[in-house]
Design goal:
Blueprint: E1 2-4, E2 7-11, H1 21-28, H2 34-42, E3 46-48, E4 51-52, E5 64-68, E6 86-89, E7 93-98, H3 115-126, E8 136-137, E9 146-152, H4 155-166, E10 171-179, E11 186-190, E12 193-195, E13 204-205, E14 211-214, E15 217-225, E16 229-236, H5 243-250, E17 301-309, E18 316-320, H6 325-335
Parallel strand pairs: 9-17
Antiparallel strand pairs: 1-2, 2-5, 3-4, 3-5, 6-7, 7-9, 8-9, 10-16, 10-17, 11-15, 12-13, 12-14, 15-16, 17-18
Helix pairs in contact: 1-2
């Protein structure tokens, strides 16, 4: 993509060869609806090397398409000016170290103050037109999990990263402080996960009564053992909801201060005091309701590393997220 004033130029990717012009533009301008883009095409604001195109025009691979953005985006995210801890950035990607307590994307009542809306502001600061670029989220972390998230900044990077994550090609490593002393130095937790029958989709379990059970595997290795805790690295080999937290609880060593899961993978009883609101607990971002005596206020899980292949350059890349201060304090407390 290139830009002059409020005019953007795109080169047609091979896989979009033959696409109708408004649908081609919608791939690149994700904050615009096809209706608004179609209106700009009809108004004569879109051209190829051969001149202004009509609404039935179909693009050809390698062709350069220019659009003059006379209308604002109609699907624009809120834009929140907040600091981001950026681990890496280039024209195609931005990698951030997400803080605990930040919701990744808009959900329910949380339409502002998310990682997605902060990223929208960050990209707006770089774009020729506010809303010309929309952050491409290809994976997520739970609200109370900190760590590395990879985000696409343009269309082709978003497409290729999405395919890679669907195929489970990126390799993720999490640091977890857990309850109890884990006996084996390393191991594989191979326990299918499904929706807890009482949670209506919010919580998962390894129990055979779970709905929609799917194969789930997590490798782990012990980093350090303390008097009543262990520090582990966990590598999820599949991508299920709350997988690491439920698997470690299933192992008998739940993550410190986990707000839902306890030893054996059971749900903390307080979470079912009101079955009507139980399904909404995670969406509402409930902070932990039980304390461990440690200097720590959320579950002790951090996405410390992610390995991906760059979607454009195809170079293997590894991104590491520094430990947040609260996790460092908790480790120091159990080690003393």
């Amino acid at each position: 993509m290139t830009a002059i004033s409020d005019t953007l130029t795109f080169t047609v990717e091979p896989y979009l060869h033959g696409s109708r012009i408004d649908r081609f533009l919608a791939k690149h301008l994700r904050n615009y609806s096809t209706f608004r883009l179609h209106r700009m095409v009809v108004a004569g604001c879109v051209s190829s090397e051969a001149g202004v195109v009509g609404d039935r025009f179909r693009v050809q691979r390698g062709e350069r398409i220019t659009v003059r953005l006379v209308d604002p985006p109609d699907k624009l995210l809120p834009s929140d000016e907040r600091p981001l801890e950026i681990l890496f950035e280039d024209p195609w990607l931005v990698v951030v170290n997400k803080a605990a307590g930040v919701i990744v994307h808009q959900v329910g009542d949380f339409q502002e103050r998310t990682l997605e809306t902060a990223l929208q502001h960050h990209l707006d600061e770089q774009a020729v037109v506010r809303g010309a670029v929309r952050p491409g989220l290809v994976h997520r972390l739970d609200r109370w999990t900190s760590g590395a998230i990879v985000v696409a900044k343009e269309h082709l990077a978003h497409r290729r990263l999405s395919i890679d994550f669907q195929e489970r090609r990126p390799r993720k490593a999490y640091l977890a402080l857990v309850e109890g002393v884990v006996a084996p130095d390393r191991g594989l937790i191979d326990a299918p996960l499904g929706i807890h029958p009482a949670s209506d989709g919010v919580l998962t379990t390894t129990d055979p009564t779970a709905r929609g059970r799917k194969p789930s595997r997590t490798r782990f290795a012990v980093v350090a053992r303390y008097h009543a805790h262990s520090l582990l690295v966990a590598w999820p080999l599949t991508g299920r909801l709350h997988q690491i937290r439920v698997h470690l609880a299933h192992l008998g060593h739940p993550v410190v201060n986990d707000e839902f899961y306890t030893a054996g993978g059971a749900i903390k009883p307080s979470r079912f005091d009101d079955c009507e609101i139980a399904p909404k607990l995670e969406q509402a971002g409930y902070p932990p309701d039980e304390r461990t005596g440690l200097p720590y206020g959320r579950h002790a899980l951090h996405a410390m590393q992610i390995e991906v292949t760059h979607p454009i350059t195809e170079v293997p890349m590894t991104f590491r997220a520094p430990l947040p201060s609260d996790l460092r304090s908790a480790i120091a407390a159990v080690a003393s």
